[in-house]
Amino acid sequence: MSKILVTGAMGNVGQEVVRALLHRGAQVLAADRRPERIVAKFGDTVTATKLDFRDRATWAGAVEGAAHMFLMRPPAIADVQDTLNPFVDFARAQGVDHVVFLSVAGAEKNSFVPHRKVEDHLRALSDHYTNLRPGFFAQNLQSAYANDILEDDRVYVPAGQHDVNWIDVRDVAEVAALALTAPQSHRGQAYTLTGPGPVAWSVVTAALSQALGRTIRYQPASIVGYMRHLSRRGLPWGAIAVQTVLHVLLRFGQGASVDPTLERLLGHPGRTIERYIADHAHVWAKPSQHL
Fold first, then answer.
1. Contacts (Cβ under 8 Å, ≥6 apart) of 107
2. Residue 275 lies inside a defined structural domain of this protein
3. The pairing of beta strand 27-32 with beta strand 129-134
């Protein structure tokens, strides 16, 4: 059976892609800069391998025996021209036939995002790729917002009052696994992936409150106030800028679009934000709570 390489295997999306592939009976090469973390997480259900896009000495071992690849850009890497794109060339030369790339919604309209440069590079090589363009991740609640919910009982972002269509990365991973295990049906495709429909921030906080047994409120932040808040949280200025811009764009409806592609590919609607919150309530539980 052909092996499938999953880069970023310890990230939110990467872990779910590994699980989705294992569920389909695939042989998985799970790559990370620290492969011992993969062993601790998945044991012997996968083959752990070291991969650092900035260290070409790790490339050969990572792609050895791989027929297809799930590719994602680490947030710390902006210069894809000297990292991800050469790695794609190397992987293809070593026999990797199909690349499923985790891009971002709107990449086709924005030539400045690093993901667009990877998409362009894949298209220039052949049609042996599938680009996934997901919308706003539900998992932001357990990463970027986790401390605010846990410590302050609030969601505090400069997103205004515009509804957001949240997508669960488990659904994105299912699409990735589908394209990786049946690549001939998805060659040369770019899929915009969204959740089942936009919801108000009050719906999100109501679901959090119900799941946690305490009141969680939504507090719209000003741009300056949010940047100061992230600075106090210890985030570097680059991350502060990215998170601020991302949430300000939500004010203009850029997180509210609906696309039928995910439901068409999977044969069922995506998970709702209420479902995601109920499944992950332990993430925001205070030590005194027993969920």
1. 113, 115, 116, 119, 131, 133
2. yes
3. unpaired
At 86, give phi and psi (nearest 5°): -65, -35
Q: What is the pLDDT of residues 221-262, one digit of tens each?
A: 999 999 999 999 998 887 888 889 889 989 998 899 999 999
Nearest CA-CA partner of 107 in 2, 193, 231: 193
Q: Token pair of 175, please?
A: 């699409």
User: Is 236 among the domain residues?
Assistant: yes
Which residues make beta-bridge pairs with 50? Answer: 32
CATH label of the domain that carries residue 52: 3.40.50.720
User: Do residues 25 and 79 both lie within one domain?
Assistant: yes
Residue-wise pLDDT for 125-171, tens only, equals 999 999 999 999 999 999 999 999 999 999 999 999 999 999 999 99
Strand partners, 166: 136
Which residue range forms the structural domain that includes residue 152?
138-164+196-256+268-284
Residues 271 and 169: their CA atoms lie apart, in Å, by 9
Is the full-model pTM beyond 0.90?
yes
Span 270-281, pLDDT tens digits: 999 999 999 999
Split at pLDDT 50, 70, 90, the class of 287 is confident
Which helix (DSSP H) or strand (DSSP E) does residue 155 occupy? Answer: strand 154-157
One domain, residues 100 and 150: no
Q: Name the burial class of residue 60, with classes exposed (0-12), middle (13-18) and buried (19+) by CB atoms within 10 angstroms of its CB.
A: exposed
d(CA 254, CA 33): 33
Spell 194-230 as b/e; 16+ CB within 10 A means b. bbbebbebebbbbbbeebbeeebebebbeeeebbebb
